[in-house]
């Protein structure tokens, strides 16, 4: 478990500017990940991508993140923190070139590169802010606040901007924001931390393969599978509840705003009773899934369900990363990257199953409930405070 250290710099001011700059960078990279969901049809028409190729703009990012994110993290393990984060943001700033990249393979290659550096940025940002604050729980909650905002605004914001100014406009905006994040990081001297002492490549891989760390990663994979199994059918659930297109946007906004609250609460709760927080988050994720067995739900029941679900969904990311990084405290960057890879594997599998239409619309939403309950409960109750695991 990461000890509670005094913030770097002794009696210096709290790292508020640094925290917000890193959260801003996290929001940008996650918005870039999801914005193409709404832009894919227009991008396909403009660049000659096939429908399958447009789908790979989404899955290619996730698949690039899963295997290549940990590789990028190991390769940059000795870089100074600000330089590692700037390097991670460069593929996102390259969105400024997307309107010039009319070759579909180049666009897809850029998406894979962006996926590969997302775990690097989140891992380094989490480690650096943990060192500055002396509190890993608050640091990770701040970084994932940016993740939540990026996920909340990426798709609807991109669609709205594209409707007004064309499909390239949101990508140009996000490229400019990524460049601004690089500039902000460069101007904050306290982010120029030398890399914390890191084990060699073979030692890092051994740490990642330790039974406790591997089991934590497996639990993250299970919990993310449960979270995304239901989340992939959120639109289906709202449609089955009788909501139309205009109302669905409002319900999704409620889900996202609740996620902001859940993110903050998870950081505070994990600092006091991590095991209890994990169990509570898993319970809240599981119970809405089980409630979906009673679909369709009336709006009065749907509102508290979505609020609780959105809060727990965002809190789950914070809890999972805390579990894994505390279990592998000697290699926090790699641990964070591996945890994010687990999230992207689960997200891409859920998205592909949903896109393939393997289940009828209403039945698929109902079947998601037990899967979410099973995975999340297994994840929470096998973890105890201090990072220890009980036998299966």
Helix percent reads: over 70%
Mean pLDDT: 79
What composes the largest sheet?
none
Topology, number of strands: 0
Q: What's the CATH C level of the largest domain?
A: Mainly Alpha
- Examine the coordinates and then state which fold CATH places here, giving the name of the CATH topology of the largest domain: Growth Hormone, Chain: A
Number of helices: 14
Q: What number of domains? A: 2
Q: Kindly report the name of the CATH homologous superfamily of the largest domain.
A: MFS general substrate transporter like domains
CATH architecture of the largest domain: Up-down Bundle
Distance between the termini: 21 Å
Structural Rg: 20 Å
Low-pLDDT stretches: 1-11, 359-364, 385-392
Instruction: Tell me what portion of residues adopts beta-strand conformation.
Output: under 5%
Written as H for each helix and E for each strand, in order along the chain, the element string is HHHHHHHHHHHHHH
Structural class: mainly alpha
